[in-house]
Amino acid sequence: MRGKITVTQLLARRKDDGVSRKTGFRRFSEAGIATYIMLAPFAILFIVFSIYPVLSSLRLSFMRYNAICNPDQAPCGSVGFGNYTTLIFNDDRFHKALSNTGLYVIGAVLLGMLASLALALALQEDTRTNRVLRVIFFLPSVTSGIAVVLVWGWVFRGDQVGLLNAFLNIFGIAPIEWLATTWMAIPILIFMSVWGGAGFGMILFLAGLNSIPAMYYEAAVIDGAGPRQRFRYITLPLLRPVMVYVAITGIIGAFQIFEGVYLLFPTSVGSIGGLQDMALMIVPYLYDAGFNKFRLGYASAIAWILFAIIFVVSMINLKISRSLEDLK
Fold it and tell me: Domain range holding 55?
């Protein structure tokens, strides 16, 4: 009868649905296998060159290991948290490196952000001159770090061949040992960092400034707001995401300073950091422990402490930023 479905027709429909479902599942499985095959080379390389070294470093941080002895035999072997307790409580050089790095990070990040924002505000207008100046200020950010440090080494050289001393000699001022004066080490490194990184921060702040709608400033002008008020109540709040990003990337980069200390402040063969460790930072100390003294377990512990410090500081920065956002 018309409008009724027989048992035979119902079974045939169910059979067809099962075939279509199996076909769809087979297609999904084939697509999934193809995806896994294409991802496999990257996954293997990532595990071999990223995950495995990180886990090996974590394991070594709990061992006394000097790269030439069996890690499972004396004098090498597990020391538990011995490397960490020695670093935190008994290692004066690590304490010096930690305090120097803290001062450097604070100065380099704060002054770098101020310089970047000032350059962005000064060069915000899109003119031919400003475009040329943007390129000039950005060039140090893409220049080889070692080449830049070598140039600054010539500038701060202690004899009359150094650029600064040659300039002072014109006025009859005696040469100054810039790189051998204890209190000058960290300011010199901060100055080099600001000079080299301000251009990159400038580009980020320019992008943030150009994303602020002009109607906000127009409405503020109509309401009688002056330049300072517009900057305080419009520019700074809307630039907060960019400022957080610049601050976090700046902190991570500043904690990892190496070339400037290694090339400008050597002390002797097998050591690093300048006279009285005046320029010793965490990463150079890590290098000194791992590759000069071959204490790879100790160096691994330094690396994990550095990771923990950067992680905590970055999280605090994000927390403060979100708290300020909630107060708006």
Answer: 7-60
